[in-house]
């Protein structure tokens, strides 16, 4: 039997449907009934909340009156009475103001002044603190109960289970004589805790696939795009709507976002400098490298004013040459926008803070999700995504009382984006406060002394470890030599024949499975299928006045404890000494003198490792970047490695 299409012939005047010039929208009868029920629930919830606030103020007012009567003969009674009266009056006026807001909300649902209401809502959302929750109870324990309930429901409870859980908590509160009750609906609980504030700004939009004009889906949409392109007399006329299987007109969903993310993350900085050299004419290739160099400068998580100016210079060269090399028909407005990036970064900081390419890659996953032909899945997913993102901030903003600190570990289990590891083979040790600027200096300036026991970023903990073991006799001499050089103590002895228990270097180490440094995870060969992380580190040249970037492969990561003898004058001045050092044992490649790839900032290294020495013991603080490598054969059939350094991640 063929399906009967649902006709949109019912006038709906609810708040979302009335935000247009007509004051109503045509929807199906089922949708209209759902909107009416939703408006009624929201109205009841607002009235219920106002009534509870009014009762609370009335009780506090009665308590204040009793207090004033008891303290009538006190020398400070007049001052106390004035303070109490001001407090009560303020609270009553605040409740009355809330009642007025409720009345305005009710009237706006049935009235026709919808456009002004929309503007007011946007203004309030922009100016208000998203973590503000004025309806939260004052009792710290009640705050915790409400916070725990909303987080637990958002993570584990679906559909009608939320109402059942809320009712169960309210029954327990009654049994134990508490004068506090949670709102009976999930919407009310979200509003009381402020948890729904984070998703207030989410709106569905329809975008023309041709000219990219954006239409808000809250208002009636034309079937075809009505945007007139610059210099054209006719409209775009691209189709915006299509007929669904149920016969309703729905927006087309055929957007491709994943390719943008891949192009910026992989193709431009990593593959194109190597693969395009043999494809493009030399003039076009040199011009393309200007764009690659600009991307390398501007997409850094941490950027300097010098980097911004260099990136702008590269973009200027790229756009100027494009205008000369290519025909005007292939040039787009984006090329003009390139030249405004310098001002944008100066105003708002590194692009990682506001560019949406990393978020948009999730759209590639959404395209393959089976929605069972149901509409509005995008809004549901967006609400969940935004709320999950801000759960941690929500907890710290809601629970600020010192007495609530014991509750934080329990709530942390509900705010974590991933389930905590159940492995017992982890270690965490105390360290001095971590400073991001000092950590950046450690890997960007090789002239600074770095021992390996400096503070690690919080992302590194807990460290996933193996059982303690003895370092191989082949690698141990390099560790001993490292400590001699790093601590300027040439008299340090090996563990085999120590003359003093305080002047030798132990051979016991604890290998690490991996380490997370500001979002970048590094692994040794054992835990990366034989391919340990390829990294780069800066070293001083033989003359001490130049820096060289060496590329190597991590063989293993390890933790080692070492305390120098107390007669070291430098160490005597330290109040607390950190004996735990975190290293990577790295085998380095030999740098070649071939400069044929210098234009595209690609290094050429020998395919063989150089002989190991104390430089193979690398403090993890000195890893300057992760690199992409590629096997390469010269014209004489010699094997080489092409090395392309990638931006250093910095997510603390």
UniProtKB/TrEMBL annotation:
InterPro entries: Znf_C2H2_type. It comes from the Eukaryota. Residues 208-230 form the C2H2-type domain. Residues 93-117 are annotated as: Disordered. PANTHER family: C2H2-TYPE DOMAIN-CONTAINING PROTEIN (PTHR46579:SF2), F5/8 TYPE C DOMAIN-CONTAINING PROTEIN-RELATED (PTHR46579). This is C2H2-type zinc finger transcription factor.
């Amino acid at each position: 039997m063929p399906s009967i299409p649902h006709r949109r012939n019912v006038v709906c005047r609810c708040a979302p449907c009335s935000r247009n010039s007509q004051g109503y929208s045509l929807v199906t009868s089922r949708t209209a009934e759902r909107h009416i029920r939703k408006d009624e629930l929201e109205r009841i919830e607002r009235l219920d909340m106002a009534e509870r606030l009014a009762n609370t103020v009335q009780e506090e007012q009665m308590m204040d009156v009793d207090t004033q009567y008891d303290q009538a003969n006190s020398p400070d009674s007049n001052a106390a009475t004035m303070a109490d009266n001001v407090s009560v009056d303020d609270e009553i006026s605040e409740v009355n103001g809330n009642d007025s807001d409720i009345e305005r909300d009710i009237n706006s649902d049935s009235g026709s002044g919808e456009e002004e209401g929309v503007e007011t809502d946007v203004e309030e959302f922009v100016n208000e603190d998203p973590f503000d929750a004025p309806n939260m109870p004052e009792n710290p324990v009640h705050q915790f109960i409400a916070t725990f309930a909303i987080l637990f429901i958002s993570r584990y409870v679906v559909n009608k289970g939320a109402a059942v859980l809320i009712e169960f908590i309210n029954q327990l509160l009654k049994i134990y004589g508490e004068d506090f009750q949670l709102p009976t609906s999930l919407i009310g609980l979200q509003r009381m805790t402020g948890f729904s504030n984070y998703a207030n700004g989410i709106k569905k939009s329809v975008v023309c696939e041709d000219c990219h004009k954006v239409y808000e889906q809250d208002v009636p949409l034309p079937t075809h795009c009505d945007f007139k392109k610059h210099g054209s007399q006719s409209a775009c006329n691209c189709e915006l709507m299509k007929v669904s299987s149920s016969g309703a007109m729905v927006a087309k969903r055929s957007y491709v976002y994943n390719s943008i993310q891949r192009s910026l993350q992989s193709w431009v900085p990593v593959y194109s400098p190597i693969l395009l050299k043999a494809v493009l004419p030399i003039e076009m290739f040199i011009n393309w490298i200007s764009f690659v160099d600009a991307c390398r400068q501007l997409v850094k998580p941490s950027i300097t004013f010098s980097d911004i100016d260099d990136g702008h210079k590269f973009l200027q060269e790229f756009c100027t040459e494009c205008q000369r090399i290519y025909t005007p028909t292939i040039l787009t407005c984006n090329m003009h926008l390139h030249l405004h990036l310098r001002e944008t970064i100066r105003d708002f900081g590194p692009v990682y803070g506001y560019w949406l390419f990393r978020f948009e890659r999730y759209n590639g996953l959404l395209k393959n999700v089976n929605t069972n032909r149901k509409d509005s899945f995008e809004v549901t997913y967006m609400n969940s995504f935004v709320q999950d993102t801000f759960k941690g901030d929500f907890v710290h903003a809601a629970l600020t009382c010192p007495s609530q600190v014991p509750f934080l570990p329990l709530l942390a289990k509900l705010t974590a984006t991933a389930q905590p590891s159940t492995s017992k083979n982890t270690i965490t040790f105390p360290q001095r406060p971590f400073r991001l600027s000092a950590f950046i200096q450690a890997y960007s300036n090789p002239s600074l002394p770095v021992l390996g026991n400096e503070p690690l970023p919080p992302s590194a903990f807990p460290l996933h470890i193996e059982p303690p073991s003895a370092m191989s006799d082949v690698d141990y001499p390099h560790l001993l030599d490292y400590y001699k050089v790093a601590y300027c103590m040439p008299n340090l002895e090996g563990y085999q024949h120590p003359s003093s228990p305080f002047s030798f270097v132990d051979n016991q180490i604890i290998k690490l499975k991996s380490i997370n440094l500001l979002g970048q995870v590094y692994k040794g060969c054992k835990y990366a299928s034989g391919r340990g992380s390829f990294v780069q580190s800066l070293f001083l040249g033989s003359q001490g006045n130049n820096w060289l970037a060496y590329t190597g492969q991590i063989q293993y990561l390890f933790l080692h404890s070492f305390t120098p003898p107390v007669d070291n004058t430098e160490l005597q001045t330290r109040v607390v000494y950190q004996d735990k050092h975190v290293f990577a044992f790295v085998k380095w490649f030999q740098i070649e003198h071939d400069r044929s790839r210098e234009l595209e900032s690609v290094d050429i290294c020998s395919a063989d490792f150089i002989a190991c020495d104390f430089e193979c013991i690398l403090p993890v603080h000195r890893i300057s970047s992760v690199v992409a490598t590629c096997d390469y054969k010269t014209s004489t059939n010699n094997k080489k490695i092409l090395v392309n350094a990638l931006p250093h991640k910095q997510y603390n």
